Amino acid sequence: MRHSGRAFRSGREMTKKIPKFKTRVTELFGIEYPIIQGGMSWVADHHLVVPVSEAGGLGVLGAGSMSPSQLHGEVAAVRAGTSKPFGVNVPLTRSDAPKLIRVCMDLEVKIVFTSAGNPAVFTPELKEKGITVVHVVSNVRQAVRAERAGVDAVVAEGFEAGGHIGREEIGTITLVPQVVDAVSIPVIAAGGIADARGFVAALALGAEGVQVGTRFAATVEANCSIYYKNAIVRAEDAATVVVTRSLLPTRVIRNALAEELLRAEQRGAQEPQLREILGEGRARMAIVDGELAEGLIEAGQSAGLVKSLRTVELVFQDFLEGYVKVLNRLQGLVERRSAR
Amino acid sequence: MRHSGRAFRSGREMTKKIPKFKTRVTELFGIEYPIIQGGMSWVADHHLVVPVSEAGGLGVLGAGSMSPSQLHGEVAAVRAGTSKPFGVNVPLTRSDAPKLIRVCMDLEVKIVFTSAGNPAVFTPELKEKGITVVHVVSNVRQAVRAERAGVDAVVAEGFEAGGHIGREEIGTITLVPQVVDAVSIPVIAAGGIADARGFVAALALGAEGVQVGTRFAATVEANCSIYYKNAIVRAEDAATVVVTRSLLPTRVIRNALAEELLRAEQRGAQEPQLREILGEGRARMAIVDGELAEGLIEAGQSAGLVKSLRTVELVFQDFLEGYVKVLNRLQGLVERRSAR
Question: ipTM, 2 decimals?
């Protein structure tokens, strides 16, 4: 594997600045750093998962764009590339979700992320098999429900995230602390995190780990179209919009298709008309085929923070060295009034 | 003044835990803590501004709901209550903004916050009079324009904020670092900050101060309806919605009026119909008169984090003691790999 965490093992000077983390999330997954790569459909296959896990984070396969047999092959490919922990993300709204879950159990995948849908359906069976289960939530009610269903952790994903987002549109900065207050299991923050500043901010809000999507999509290793990656790199602060709010709110980079959807919604278009404009396979078109006008360019608001393609190991280095720098800066803003 | 920063002057035990801050924002305003109270229309009069400034933050009068002569009286009332720095917020979209600006200059107000509108119009004249000028922005382009116009600092206000928000709907966690990267003047973060966790998160993102609205509206001292304050305290994570997106996006707590506006927008209603539903004086109705069904209950997403009415001094105590606690927690998550 070309980029497998080399900097952390060989580079002595770098290693000195890399802190060692211990949170309930690093303990739960058995990983070195509380950085989870989002299981993005069409993006997160073994090409991305292996280097992330090798770097000390948690790589997560995005089963949302895989058939059960493709998932089978991807799990095998990850295992051929790394012996470190990894996960699989299964969107429960997929009609063949039971089959994808079955593949995870058959192959003894140790960590499963479920998103959308009801966590009570598969969690008991997964837990019985000794699998660690994490559910993605976008509001407090869902988090409480997931905890009751027996999951081991939740991802609290804010409005800033790419692709499908929660209807309530709660920003990461208010969502994370409220979820932390509402549940006792560990919380992983997601939505808008693309550098060390967001990483520290998320942990300050009470999270014990972060899930990062868009930043990892724009890596050298990610197996998606270079046109899609470049669209993320070029994106500025206001580049993304939420389309199909009344159907399934989805954050994408603004393009001709997104404009058409927004105009239709503003005219009061209902579900059938929106579905007609949307057609089929639009995310794949943008992400895999690089059709940037015709496709849905799913990406988070953090695209504005992504200014260059990087290797996975450089992304880790930025987050980890940056953590220490940001902490030192925060410390430097205050002086204690009394000696301790 | 009943609550004027008493805890910080008399309470020895408390004082010990309160850190002393130094950022470009505390220096710019001549204040002790980088906590600015948002100049909320109908909420921010001298009853709130005096205790905030006395506690060591920056109280800001909300001129958006005042006539020039009312503003005159409010500035006098603030000066009767405190000799500490305070500011005035003037929304530049108000037709009589020039008159409000004139009052600020005539009374030699030292700090003026301008919001909406073009910062190039009044900034040169205000700066000539030696007034510190801060402009509120909701995207990077506006921030760059404000810096070019000569303002001393910007407030970067995220989508989570209450009342009028930016059309681009950029969340605080992605907006703040991008504005910090784009300008060299100090940045004050706003939108979604109601406790020490959000305070630390905002500073981690690169801000040198925070502007807090909703949390200060739900204080004992704020001179607004107890029904409005209680609506904030009762609000949960998903309580707020953005209405009149096509007109002037405004975040409010969901009620009968908000539902009606949302339904109309979903049907494709255009400006005249929305204006008819909206009518006149709806924010005042909710905030001053406590008409919670008929009024527009302007509030930020951070309402979900506000669980009780507090005095201004308790809000400061929570933020400041909490800062040290959160920093210690962040430090505790890592250990340096090598001795330094």
Answer: 0.94
